[in-house]
Amino acid sequence: xxxxxxxxxxxxxxxxxxxxxxxxxxxxxxxxxxxxxxxxxxxxxxxxxxxxxxxxxxxxxxxxxxxxxxxxxxxxxxxxxxxxxxxxxxxxxxxxxxxxxxxxxxxxxxxxxxxxxxxxxxxxxxxxxxxxxxxxxxxxxxxxxxxxxxxxxxxxxxxxxxxxxxxxxxxxxxxxxxxxxxxxxxxxxxxxxxxxxxxxxxxxxxxxxxxxxxxxxxxxxxxxxxxxxxxxxxxxxxxxxxxxxxxxxxxxxxxxxxxxxxxxxxxxxxxxxxxxxxxxxxxxxxxxxxxxxxxxxxxxxxxxxxxxxxxxxxxxxxxxxxxxxxxxxxxxxxxxxxxxxxxxxxxxxxxxxxxxxxxxxxxxxxxxxxxxxxxxxxxxxxxxxxxxxxxxxxxxxxxxxxxx
Length: 404
Known about the structure:
Blueprint: H1 2-10, E1 20-22, E2 33-42, H2 49-69, E3 75-83, H3 88-100, E4 104-108, H4 113-116, H5 120-125, E5 129-132, H6 139-142, E6 157-159, H7 164-178, E7 183-188, H8 192-208, E8 211-217, H9 226-235, E9 239-243, H10 246-258, E10 265-267, H11 274-280, E11 288-292, H12 303-311, H13 318-339, H14 349-359, E12 361-363, E13 368-370, E14 382-388, E15 391-398
Parallel strand pairs: 2-3, 2-4, 4-5, 5-6, 7-8, 7-9, 9-10, 10-11
Antiparallel strand pairs: 1-2, 11-14, 12-13, 14-15
């Protein structure tokens, strides 16, 4: 904590705090060149690493494109990726390290909402922009009392992913009206993301007329769900809604089907990964997820991004958050371009980048990129995917208006 305090209270963000000089000429003809670092924080190993790596390399492609196209003349961008292992404490340590690195001007990430809760204040105190391509917990941008009074906790926090308010309700609407399911058993992993998603699904499902047959919780890392499976079977539920990541749900759905409960498992974007299908095997057939936006492979603007990701043979899953990570990185890059004056970064460059990101509006590869007064994306599109013949296939896209 002593190190954290000293870093955050000094505020010594001079020119070198946000970039370093390179005396070599760049290809655009500008003899002076500033090198600026964009940080990335995500689980790059262990739990959730498939989606975490998709975030890292989505950002990497954005940086490479900016350098190749000289998006900001006189500025070269580089990426600094840090592994939070999906652990909040590690994420906080990474945030402190990124703030202390004088070349870092902004950060993309993290993947997990629970990790973000431990990083936000570190970045905000340092006036450093943080843009998550995947956080969906409403309280991150609208405060803990968001259901009754929305208050933005941190002006430096933004996201290109829409919130659980829409995702959980979108799932409930499709479950009730699309799948004609009337009785759901609801499970979550007790984490910020999973618990929040399940709560909102439950609220909207019951408002639509559905019934909750039972609720329960699991812990991250669990592998034996026999007791839970028995509860679900005995409840008579025709759907299992799961709030959490793929690491546990891919095992749960297999044990559920092996026990003879042939009902679909429906979850959020934390499950939307090929890893889920690969691990669960045939048991995943018919399972569903919601995810932000529309399928990246169907977006004309993302065609080059997808081709590059595949050509580079980057690890991880680009389909879940890769394009949103690319756009989050691009938002920071464009903001840097707006604050650079006469080939120089101002002494308060980090704070100016925060302000520039708030005002940003551009066409990204995932859609229109702009942020509202809470730092949330204005792009509210969502998609339901279902496992069909061993692959995630989109079955429904649209917007959702919560039922009051």
